[in-house]
Write a structure and sequence with these properties.
single chain, about 190 residues, alpha/beta, Ubiquitin-like (UB roll), 2 domains, 5 helices
Length: about 190
Amino acid sequence: MNTWFECTAKYIKMDENGHEKKASETYMLDAISFTEAESRIYKELQTMVSGEFMVSKISKTRISEIIPSDTGDRWYKAKVAFITIDEESGKEKRTSQLVLVFSDNVKDAYDQIIEAMQGMMADFEISGINESTILDVFPYSAAEKTDLPPHLKPIESFLASPELQDKADFAVNVDEEDLNDDLDPIEED
């Protein structure tokens, strides 16, 4: 499950009339930690923003799913309640999740959620859809490789080295009794 972070960046941009104005925009990305989120948002914004910018806020969100689209023009946040029946008490239990949908309008966002959730085993109900302030979403891509400093090597190259393979074969062939001999208490005479 992805952990989505909402990042707010502040910078100066040109408006339609050519005047400079302060902008505060919100972006979303998935990351393992706050540190990775900060690093990734700086990399993304460096390609988009000319001039100086500052990331003023990074916070975890409760977004559980992103529904992208090629035709949308803004992001909508939807609250989806999954309905299950407790077998012991027979009562309905609702578990809410937030979903982010890229769409043209609220109706299209609703239709996209219905389409995305069609294969679900549990019943669900969309209890609300609101336009979000999120400008763009940056999902993690496996193609994103972190640049290593020149004195470090990727772990894959180390694990594939013949020297390590020889040591790995040795470790596999060690008898378990030999390992336990070292752990026996010292007998005193």
